[in-house]
Each structure stands twice: as C-alpha cells, then as structure tokens.
Amino acid sequence: MMIPFPIGSFTTLDAVAVGMLLFLWVLTGWLVENPPKNRLSVSVLMADYRRDWMRQFVTRQPRIFDANVIDSLRQGTAFFASACMIAIGGGVALIGNTAKLEGLAQDLTIMADGVVLELKIFLMIAFLANALLKFIWAHRLFGYCTIMMAAVPNEATDPEAYRRAAQAAEINITSAKSFNRGLRAIYFALASLAWLLSPWALLATTLLASGVLMRREFASTSRLVIMGKEAK
Q1: Long-range contacts formed by 105-112: CB under 8 A, 24+ apart
Q2: Which of 16, 37, 51, 176 makes the best surface tag, with the fewest CB within 10 Å?
Q3: Residue 170 domain flag
C-alpha cells in the first residue's frame, strides 16, 4: 500500500516504523527522567551523587580534584559534539549527491528512489542535530557550573558556602540531563540507519535501541552498584 504523498516509494509501513521510532524516543526519555518512585533510573540516582559531590566540595582542600572532574565532563561533551558535527557533515554531503545515493542503493539492493533515500538519511541527521544541540548546551552548562563552584567561599562556615554549592549542584544535574538526552538521540540516530534496509529493520533496531536504554537505566549491574547493592 502506498501513502498518497508525492514522496516516491514511502509506504504505510515506513510511516508506522518512523512513528514508532519517534514515539519510543520520546517515551524512553520521559521514563528515564520521570521514573516510578519504586524503580529509579540511573540518571535520577546519579543526581543525588552530584548533590553529595558539591556538599563534599565545600570542605575539600585543595579543590583541584573537583576542577579536574568538571574538566573531564566538559571534554566528554566536546568530544561528542565534534563527532556529531562530523557525522552531520557526512550526511549532508550524501544528501547533496542523489546520483551516488541511488547507486549505493542499487549496490545494496535497497528498493527506494533518491527522494526516499534522502528522507531516510535526513532522519538520521535530524537526530544527530538534536544530539549536537544537547551536547553544546551541556558543555555550556558545565562551564557555568565551573564558575559557580569557583564562587563558593573557601570557608565552610561562610553562610553562602553551602547555598552556592547547592546551586552549582543543580546546574551540574541540568548539564548531565542535557548530556544524557544527547546520548539517547545518538542511540536512535544509529537505529534510524536501519531504515536504509527496510521499515522492518527500522522497527527492529528501534525496539533494540529502546531495550538497551531501558536495561541500562533500570536493570543494569551499574544501577545496583550505584544503589549500594551487590551485583549478583
């Protein structure tokens, strides 16, 4: 069955697969950030550790250790942002050359015309662009966190010390949330690549990506360790 849109061989199954991809992307993100109270996600559990970190930061002397940790977090966001920019550039270059796209499709026995192939690659680019924006914002927020940490008084008895440390913790948590959103977008960008093969492949990789994310957030060994439980 063909959808009556002027986009070549885009079928109803394609629409269902893309809809499922977008739905699960939004759903997994919501579940990770708003988990049930009796089953907290790794991301939510780590937020408490970030608050503890800032409380310990107030009395730690010297504070070079904390500066190194923040620097490593910023380097991580910068790395992923750079990788996304390179991948986006490659995808845009492919879209700009329809002839090569169609030749590639024939080599891979992919039944799709140039317009649909461009659409499939554009979906991946859209996810990567979303990830890039999240990483850029996370990088900037980690920078804000660094400045706020520097503004924490050296004396733990100062009435502003713990208040400012708590503010830095919340900015740190917001940074991590943006970083994790970028990582989830990369997962689904990789899943969207399977659409080049078929909509069935896209459905399969969408379920796989969602399953991997849910397992790592709610049923992983690292989660047990973070909760202070022994891994079996």
Answers
A1: 105/196, 108/196, 108/197, 110/196, 110/197, 111/9, 112/8, 112/9
A2: 37
A3: yes
Per the structure, the complete domain to which residue 196 belongs is given by: 40-226
Question: Mean pLDDT in the chain?
Answer: 88
Residue 11 lies in a domain: no
Distance spanning both ends of the chain, measured CA to CA: 50
- CB atoms inside a 10 Å sphere around CB 205: 21
**Short-list 145, 161, 148, 188, CA closest to 28:** 188
The Cα–Cα gap between 222 and 135 comes to 23
- DSSP E strands: which ranges in 71-210? none
Position 232 in a domain? no
- Please provide residue 228's backbone torsions phi and psi, each rounded to the nearest 5 degrees: 85, 20
Query: pTM of this prediction?
Result: 0.87
pLDDT band at 5 (very low <50, low <70, confident <90, very high): very low
pLDDT confidence tier of residue 121, bands split at 50, 70 and 90: confident
Structural domain count, the chain:
1
> What is the rounded (10 degree) CA torsion for 143, 146, 151, 157?
150
| DSSP annotation of 148 | H
The dihedrals phi and psi of 2, each to the nearest 5 degrees, come to -110, 135
Q: For tokens 């991590």, what's the residue?
A: 176
Q: Is residue 20 part of a domain?
A: no
- Which tens digits make up the pLDDT trace of 52-83? 999 999 999 888 999 999 999 999 999 999 99
